[in-house]
Amino acid sequence: MKEFLLIFRREAALKDSQLSPEQMQSMMKPWQDWIGSIAAQNKLTSPGNRLDSEGRVVKPNNIITNGPYAEIKEAIGGYIIVKAGSLDEATALAKDCPIFSVGGSVEVRCIVPMEETN
Questions:
Q1: Residue of 40, 51, 41 lying closest to 8 (CA atoms)
Q2: What are the residues facing 55 on neighbouring strands?
Q3: Hey, where are the domains in the chain?
Q4: Is 103 helix (H, G, I), strand (E, B) or coil?
Q5: Is 10 in contact with 73 (CB distance < 8 Å)?
Q6: CB 9 within 8 A of CB 68
Q7: Fewest Cβ atoms nearer than 10 Å: which of 50, 73, 102, 118?
Q8: Architecture label for domain 2-110
Q9: What local confidence, expressed as pLDDT, does residue 105 receive?
Q10: Rounded to whole angstroms, what are the CA distances from 6 to 10, 102, 106?
């Protein structure tokens, strides 16, 4: 089995901080159910995390900028790591992701282990 990174993208302007605690709990339930179903198949490697909307970008020559940028329409909201036999199988796991209910998307990427150098 290989490991795959499922990256959750959504509209950058969508702010979770605008939600009430009840709305946040209601929004989290489908995520818990979906991730739980992947775990029940023994395919969840890392439950992942949500990502804060603030960040920085470090560029060559010690240039540091704040992000995300206003012109960006999508933001990465979080990720999980799953194990699957193929890219097709990992993609199938992503098809029921709750991010689609808010117009988001899931990027599925194979994790390539670093070769050990001794």
A1: 51
A2: 67
A3: 2-110
A4: coil
A5: no
A6: no
A7: 118
A8: 2-Layer Sandwich (3.30)
A9: 92
A10: 13, 17, 6
